[in-house]
Write a structure and sequence with these properties.
With 129 residues, this protein is α+β, with helices and mostly antiparallel strands. Helices cover 29% and strands 41% of the residues. Strands 1-2-3-4-5-6 form a 6-stranded mixed sheet, sandwiched between helices. The radius of gyration is 14 Å and the shape is globular. The protein starts with a helix and ends with a strand.
Length: 129
């Protein structure tokens, strides 16, 4: 496994633990379908939350939030619709981005992070990103 992949998994582990500590129920991790992948799927109240986790080293040219492109958001939305259809979820979907900045690729003890709730939205006619 590459250092990049390992860093991503460590970031997802950190976020899953954090969300659980905040009362979220982790429903699924690393959901894959024809449209793409969703890092974490969680339930919070009346919401089914689709979480994109982005990890960057401090000082990177592009912030974790900026690295989630319009096309990536579209893939997440399509994947979420497929997941909800396959699994019969009728909760309100929400799309969050969890941005982590770390000192080096192996240090997740004290990352700086931001949780962007409802970071982007979708409707039946198009994308609003």
């Amino acid at each position: 496994m590459s250092t990049f992949t390992q860093t991503g998994y460590c970031g997802e582990d950190f976020v899953a633990k954090y969300l659980s500590s905040q009362g979220y129920e982790i429903v699924r991790r690393n959901y894959h379908c024809v449209y793409g992948e969703i890092d974490i799927i969680a339930k919070e109240g009346n919401f089914i939350v689709f979480v994109e986790v982005k990890v960057r080293k401090k000082g990177s040219l592009v912030s974790p939030l900026e690295s989630v492109s319009r096309s990536k958001k579209a893939k997440i939305i399509k994947s979420a619709v497929k997941y909800m259809t396959e699994n019969g979820w009728n909760l309100q979907p929400r799309f969050d981005i969890f941005a982590l900045e770390i000192e080096n690729s192996g240090n997740f003890e004290t990352p700086e992070f931001e949780h962007f709730k409802n970071a982007f939205t979708a409707d039946g006619m198009g994308l609003y990103v």
